């Protein structure tokens, strides 16, 4: 007697492996659909930002002192090199000695179709003073204060109290606004925010009477924005206090708040930064201000597109596990399952993701997940009982239901864990492999031949 490979089991194993690979095709279409819906949302968010206001970066107030300098210009006239001295004007930019900022932010959610985006209106009050500095020179009688912001679309008319005088602002005619990188890093496939890696601020100017003495100021304005608001701590000593009714802030940048309080009704956060920590010099021309910026983002707590995309990445694994369980069940009960029936079960599991993404656009992601999983589990169970094996016992039916519920419950747990997903995912796969090995221990991979 000799042993030979059980060809029936071998061919069925190969067929199931091919079917699992074929399931990659509909899964690819599902992932493409999720990506397309995310792009539609991006377009809707862009429209909201265009009409309301985008991410805000704020640097204010900045003292601008014009000064003159001579520059030798070289040109060619009649094949001769001609040099001439030209007097030009430049602007020295100075930061305040003391800066205290209070920002009160009122948020709301704007919609375009089914897509939503958090927007806000920030009431800003900045006070402090510019201290006397013997190094400040130039045409002091032509000096001005600039308010520099990344997006002026939603700004109200700023009012500057300079000493005893009240000044108004006008669009910048002199000086060069700051241009610097944003501290916010673009997150791949983030459907709520997209950041330009380089931000050119726009300026409003207010003429002042600067006499190079201690000059107190108070600057008030309101500005509309969306997504996030970012600050540059310009002062030798900068104190920022931000309060809002938004309950899901995300703090970013070079400095996290020293004190913060987050509740269901909103948050309060405070920063106290000196120029030794921020590395922002008093004369800021040429300084790398982006390395000191910080801010807060206003995010929708659950991103259904990103969660659905993460869930779809586990799709082939879950289909493979389901097919393996069906194969073990088929061998153990000696009741054959047709390849077409495997395909139909696989398609049912693929449809889970389209149900999930479509339903989650209207309701909470967790509830959408429960509804989609319940629908697919019910469909596969009914098909197993009345289609695949018509006389499936109650015990076996319960086993099918529990197995599927375990799979979808396990997937939901991985989606919620995020940082620990790899750890628990590895443990879960190890346990599942052990169970499959145990269930297949009695399969006759070889048969005896005469």
Short descriptors:
elongated, 9 helices, 450 residues, single chain, 2 domains, Immunoglobulin-like, 8-stranded mixed beta sheet
Q: What this model shows, in words?
A:
- This protein has 450 residues and is of the alpha+beta class.
- The chain folds into two domains: 2-39 and 305-449, no CATH class; 54-301, Immunoglobulin-like, CATH 2.60.40.
- The protein is built from nine helices and 20 strands.
- It has helices at residues 7-22, 24-52, 275-278, 304-313, 315-333, 339-360, 365-388, 394-417, 421-439, and strands at 2-5, 56-77, 80-94, 98-112, 115-130, 144-149, 159-162, 165-168, 170-171, 179-181, 198-200, 202-207, 215-226, 228-231, 237-244, 249-253, 259-263, 266-274, 294-298, 446-449.
- The strands form four sheets. Strands 2, 3, 6, 9, 12, 14, 16 and 19 form an eight-stranded mixed sheet that branches. Strands 8-7-13-5-4-15-18-17 form an eight-stranded mixed sheet. The chain has a two-stranded antiparallel ribbon with strand order 1-20.
- Strand 7 (159-162) and strand 8 (165-168) form a beta hairpin.
- Helix 1 packs parallel to helix 6 (339-360) and helix 6 (339-360) runs antiparallel to helix 7.
- The longest helix is centred in the first third of the chain and has 29 residues, at 24-52.
- The model is unreliable at 183-197 (pLDDT under 50).
């Amino acid at each position: 007697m000799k042993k030979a490979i059980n060809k029936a089991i071998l061919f069925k194993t190969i067929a199931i492996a091919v079917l699992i690979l074929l399931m990659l095709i509909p899964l690819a279409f599902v992932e493409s659909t999720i990506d397309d819906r995310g792009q539609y949302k991006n377009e809707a968010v862009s429209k909201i930002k265009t009409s309301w206001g985008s991410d805000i970066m704020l640097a204010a107030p900045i003292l601008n002192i014009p000064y003159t300098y001579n520059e030798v210009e070289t040109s060619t006239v009649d094949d001769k090199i001609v040099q001439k001295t030209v007097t030009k004007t430049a602007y020295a930019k100075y930061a305040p000695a003391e800066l205290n900022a209070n920002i009160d932010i009122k948020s709301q959610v704007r919609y375009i179709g089914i897509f939503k985006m958090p927007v806000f209106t920030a009431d800003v009050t900045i006070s402090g003073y510019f201290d006397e500095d013997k190094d400040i020179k130039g045409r002091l009688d032509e000096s001005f204060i600039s308010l520099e912001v990344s997006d002026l679309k939603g700004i109200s008319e700023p009012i500057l109290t300079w000493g005893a005088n009240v000044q108004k602002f006008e669009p910048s005619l002199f000086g060069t606004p700051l241009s610097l990188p944003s501290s916010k890093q673009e997150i791949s496939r983030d459907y709520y925010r997209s950041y330009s890696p380089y931000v050119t601020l726009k300026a409003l100017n207010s003429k002042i009477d600067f006499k190079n003495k201690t000059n107190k100021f108070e600057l008030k304005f309101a500005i509309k924005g969306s997504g996030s608001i970012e600050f540059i701590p310009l002062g030798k000593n900068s104190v920022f206090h931000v309060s809002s009714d938004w309950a899901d802030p995300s703090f970013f940048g070079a400095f996290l708040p020293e004190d913060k309080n987050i509740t269901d009704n909103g948050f309060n956060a405070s920063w106290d930064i000196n120029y030794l920590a921020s590395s922002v010099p008093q004369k800021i021309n040429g300084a790398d201000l982006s390395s000191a910026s910080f801010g807060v983002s206003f995010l929708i707590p659950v991103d259904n597109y990103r969660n659905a995309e993460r869930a779809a990445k586990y799709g082939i694994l879950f289909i493979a596990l389901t097919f393996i369980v069906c194969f073990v069940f088929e061998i153990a009960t000696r009741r054959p399952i047709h390849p077409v029936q495997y395909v139909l079960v696989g398609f049912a599991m693929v449809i889970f993701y389209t149900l999930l993404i479509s339903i989650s656009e209207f309701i909470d992601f967790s509830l959408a997940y429960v509804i989609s999983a319940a629908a697919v589990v019910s469909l596969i169970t009914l098909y197993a009982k009345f289609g695949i094996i018509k006389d499936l016992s109650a015990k076996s039916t319960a086993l099918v239901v529990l197995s599927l519920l375990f799979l979808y419950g396990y997937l939901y747990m991985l989606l919620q864990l995020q940082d620990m997903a790899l750890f628990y995912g590895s443990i879960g796969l190890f346990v599942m492999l052990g169970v499959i090995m145990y269930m297949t221990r009695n399969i006759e991979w070889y048969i005896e031949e005469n």
